[in-house]
Amino acid sequence: MQNASANALVPREAARPAPMADIQKIAQHMARLNVAALPRNYELFHEAIVGLNASLAQDIAALGPQPQQPMLDELGLKYRLVGHCGLAGETSRNEASRMLRDVAERLAEGLKHKNAFARACGTILKSVSGHDDQSLAAFLSEVDYLTASLSTVLAAEMEIGARLQDDIKTLETLERGISAMQSAAIADRITGLPNRIALNRTIADLYEREEGAAGSALIMVDIDNFTDLNDKYGTQVGNKLLKKLAGLLQKSVKKNDFIARTEADEFALLFSNVGMQDAMTIAERLRSSVEDNLVFATSDKADPGRLTISIGVALSTDAATPGQLQANARVALLAAQSNPRLPVQAFGR
């Protein structure tokens, strides 16, 4: 087995455009449309241009030559992009904070009415106890005053109660919205799988456990020539294949294992309690299963209509940090991509 070392990065760089080229392409496109250089806008256009999301690209084009920011933000929410979900969550939290301030002000106002009523009761009590010769008319007048004060207090209490009920319902709606946004932020829109953010959190949690991260394997899967496939057959075909591949990969994981779609053409699987031999067996089985089952119709006689993948495998025992584990798996994946005869590679082996 070929050793997947850092020098495997060299041939792969020529195969995939450098990230800087993508950034420049996105920046130029945003500049032509006079779109503000905000992080969430970069994310939006990255998904449309680099992420090959044809539907999003069409929606952006439909906004015209100078799309307004609120319209772009609506698209970001529609496609559940992380930056826009975070923006919506922040807006919801701000609205909740405003409502809580209003509640505090209404409660303070109600307390003022109660204090005023208590003072009135004390004043009248002193008046009655200190004037034995007080007339019935004067007494009744003071009772009327107390009744009016009590009515004011009760009316204020009822208004506060009614508005609190409305506010509670609104807060519950906001809470559900925030929860939905948080879920959307860690889910891939096309396959429904967890995304890279979810993977990062899962690996970080793995390394924070008391027993440590030993005994886990990270397997990175890349679809060979996926960009060419999308260009040739369209993104709808590409998306269908992504969903089929996601379903196939899901069948390969157990309850305590984890799978995510991390890039347009990449998936990651995290297995617990496996060594390198078991991890390589799993990876080879995945490769064979994909090549045997993921086929698609094509009129091109030169194209067999068969999906192939490259796989990189790394063990947590070889990585001191979550970032190192992912970097090791990436090195192994790049080695596999640069050598079609050995499409499954292990880091350091």
The total count of helices amounts to 12
Q: What composes the largest sheet?
A: 5 strands, mixed
Query: How many strand units?
Result: 5
Rg is: 32 Å
Strand order of the largest sheet: 2-3-1-4-5
What's the number of domains? Answer: 2
Q: Overall mean pLDDT score?
A: 80
Distance between the termini: 7 Å
Helices and strands, in order, run as HHHHHHHHEHHEEHEHE
Q: Name the shape in a single word.
A: elongated
Assigned CATH architecture of the largest domain:
2-Layer Sandwich
In CATH, the topology of the largest domain is named Alpha-Beta Plaits
Structural account:
With 349 residues, the protein is an alpha+beta fold. The chain folds into two domains: 84-185; 196-346, Reverse transcriptase/Diguanylate cyclase domain (Alpha-Beta Plaits). It has twelve helices and five strands. It has helices at residues 9-15, 19-32, 39-49, 54-62, 69-78, 82-130, 136-185, 196-208, 226-233, 235-250, 276-293, 322-337; strands spanning 216-223, 258-263, 266-272, 309-315, 344-346. Strands 2-3-1-4-5 form a five-stranded mixed beta sheet, sandwiched between helices.
Brief account:
Helix content is 63%, strand content 9%. It contains twelve helices and five strands. The longest helix is centred in the middle third of the chain and has 50 residues, at 136-185.
